[in-house]
Design goal:
The complex is a heterodimer of chains A (176) and B (160). Chain A is mainly alpha-helical and 176 residues long. Chain A has helices at 2-20, 24-44, 48-71, 83-106, 117-129, 134-142, 144-172. In chain A, α1 runs antiparallel to α2 (24-44), α2 packs antiparallel against α3 and α6 packs across α7. Chain B is flat.
């Protein structure tokens, strides 16, 4: 249990540094600390699939963000913080924490689901789908509609990015 | 263009292993840890490594953006086709192929094919988005502002 609290403390520290630091590059690296610690947390909670995906996506996001921040000329933030926005966000975060604590106290314990579906997946997943990896059998067989939706979202995002970026690029004379 | 000789040489040694690992995770997604998404992102990281180390021309040679667009269409259509193939024996997404023997590579019917289709979508989509961000991302904020500024445009072309 101590390990989880340590990892949680590291994550909270990383996110605070990411918000408070004045340099964009160190902010991006602190966000990376949060992501990698989260992947260790997933690994210790017994979800290696999620851990692998988290590590890989974190690397990708870090590369893209660093690439994006380095290409920006001005990486230091000089503007002062908006007091009203900070106070109002603090109030709303406090309200959220109060109601969330009530909600979390009502929740079932970790690993004890309310519905019987997950138990059905665990009992019959291997026999019904033939996949020994239960996560894959859920996301590609029982819940394949969700995965189809994800694939569609990715496809449409690429389509939109290409349409928008190419128009700007053509004006600049850069053509892929 | 690109990074120093040491980085290039090390990348030449490592890149094949990265691709093999990604393909391994995709193909064994129904047996062990991994799956189409994680493996696809690992393959994309390999392409991005080529792009960062050898410069953009080399990476574009390896995977032209037209090919990437084509592949992302192919992947999406293949996944949809797998979904529709379920109608042969009943419903949408029905896993109608013989399930094979458990814990063997030939098992789980349609799931490995769906994994491959998803990995194709992921590789082409994320690679395309990265290429677009690298090539055009810096233009986004100032699309109208520097429209006719020849010197600014020239600087950008040199930096690319």
């Amino acid at each position: 249990m101590l390990v989880f609290y340590t990892l949680l403390a590291i994550m909270i520290l990383g996110s605070i540094v990411a918000i408070e630091t004045r340099n964009l590059l160190s902010s991006v690296i602190s966000v990376g600390i949060v992501g990698f610690t989260l992947s260790i947390l997933f690994l210790m909670l017994g979800a290696p699939d999620l851990a692998i995906t988290q590590v890989v996506v974190e690397i990708l996001a870090l590369v893209i963000l660093i690439r994006a921040t380095i290409s920006v000329d001005n990486t230091a933030i000089e503007k002062h913080r908006d007091t009203f926005a900070m106070v109002s966000s603090l109030v709303f975060v406090g309200l959220f924490l109060v109601f969330a604590s009530y909600a979390f106290l009502e929740m079932h314990a970790f690993g004890e689901s309310l519905m019987r579906t997950s138990q059905h997946y665990l009992d019959n997943g291997l026999a019904e789908t033939g996949a020994s990896n239960i996560v894959t059998s859920i996301i590609l067989d029982y819940r394949a509609y969700d995965t189809l939706g994800e694939a569609t979202v990715l496809f449409v995002s690429v389509l939109g990015a290409t349409v928008i970026m190419r128009r700007i690029g053509r004006k600049r004379g850069v053509n892929l | 263009m690109g990074m120093s000789l040491i980085v290039k040489k090390v990348t030449q040694f490592v890149i094949g292993l990265i691709f093999l690992y990604g393909i391994n995770i995709i193909l064994f997604g129904h047996l062990g840890v991994g799956g189409g998404f994680a493996g696809g992102v690992i393959l994309t990281c390999g392409f991005i490594l080529i792009m960062l180390v050898f410069g953009r021309e080399k990476a574009i040679q390896k995977m032209r953006t037209n090919v990437a667009h084509f592949l992302s269409c192919i992947g999406a259509l293949a996944f949809l086709a797998i979904a529709l193939l379920g109608y042969i024996d009943g419903t949408f997404f029905f896993n109608f192929i013989d399930h094979g023997k458990e814990f063997h590579l030939h098992s789980a019917g349609l799931i490995p094919f769906a994994d491959i289709a998803i990995s194709i979508i992921i590789v082409s989509a994320i690679f395309t988005i990265f290429v677009l961000l690298v090539f055009f991302g810096r233009f986004v904020g100032d699309a109208e502002e520097y429209e006719n500024d020849e010197e600014y445009v020239g600087n950008i072309d040199r930096n690319l």
